[in-house]
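dumping this here before i forget
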Amino acid sequence: MNNEARLTTMFSALADPTRRAILTRLARGEATVSELAEPFGLRQPPISKHLRILEEAGFIRQERDAQRRPRNLVVGGPLKDLDAWLRPFREQWERRFDSLESFLATKTKRTVKKGEQK
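structure:
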């Protein structure tokens, strides 16, 4: 899958609020399907569909622990890829905020100097 297709798959997976909530829950640690379904009041089939989409996007993986099959976040993986894709946008906004901060600091100094002269 090329990079553009991967990004589309990742953003599509993140577009659903239930899937984002699942990722937030898994950030605290592993959980089974029933543990993940409980807060949403969903049955196993719909939550399993959400989990499949997150697995296909590479955000989570299923482990095998005796009788349990907990899900875990994939460390790095797509979250790292999304962070790399977002980096130029974040850097651009940081530069703009730095420029605004400098501008406001200059304006504040001028205002203080004018006020002192009176």
